[in-house]
Design a protein that fits this description.
The protein is mainly alpha-helical and 210 residues long. It has one domain. It is built from eight helices and no strands. The protein is globular, with a radius of gyration of 17 Å.
């Protein structure tokens, strides 16, 4: 009980601090056009990004809970950390407008939803190198989309810091939701979430990932 409550308390404090920080900046004259706030709200403004980031957190918890080998709680945070760091690189590629073939980012975002949703729904366990490779690939796609849609005049590093911070917050939200589901023995709810995420990714692909 105590470790669970400690985790939930930490998640709550993280969310509160981030929201208070965002509100403080919003009232200092650094409006959304200043850079980091624009970047912060970008992942929150699209359902595809929102679902994908939360799914990464849920998947990370499932990997820890259902792993056939001994793991500790630090492993639960490793996959989100990889995602955030690689996403920063993807943001740079998007900012410099590096040409990518066949709508790489758009289709990659749709596939990130389809694949992560399927893995959550089926509680699939993959070898760590495979999981890390998938996470990195998806992160590049999402980061590229954020970077390519950066508004004119925004400070690059502030914008990147904003969308990376928001992404980390969404990962923490997914981890918290999964922890709660397992604590109340309702982990099957996570599978329903996985189905919904996978269906949204499939719908994006059918619709042209646009």
């Amino acid at each position: 009980m105590k470790p669970f409550l400690k985790t939930i308390r930490s998640i709550g404090l993280t969310i509160a601090v981030l929201l208070m920080t965002t509100a403080a900046h919003a009232h200092t004259g650094d409006g959304p056009h200043s850079g980091w706030l624009h970047g912060f709200f970008h992942p929150l403004s699209g359902l595809d990004h929102l679902l994908a980031m939360i799914a990464v957190g849920i998947w990370s918890v499932q990997m820890t809970v259902h792993s056939a080998v001994h793991t500790n709680t630090r492993a639960m945070w490793l996959m989100p950390a990889i995602f955030v760091m690689v996403m920063g690189l993807g943001g740079v590629l998007g900012f410099i407008a590096l040409a990518l073939p066949f709508d790489f980012a758009e289709h990659g975002i749709a596939l990130s939803l389809l694949v992560s949703g399927f893995l959550i729904a089926r509680t699939v366990q993959l070898p760590f190198p495979v999981s890390a490779s998938l996470i990195a690939l998806f992160a590049v796609c999402h980061g590229y989309a954020h970077g390519s849609e950066m508004p004119d005049g925004a400070a690059v590093f502030e914008y990147a810091a904003g969308f990376m911070l928001a992404t980390a917050l969404l990962h923490v939200t997914g981890i918290g939701l999964a922890q709660i589901a397992y604590h109340v023995q309702r982990d099957r709810w996570l599978r329903y979430v996985g189905v919904a995420v996978a269906l949204s990714g499939g719908a994006m692909l059918v619709g042209g990932a646009g």
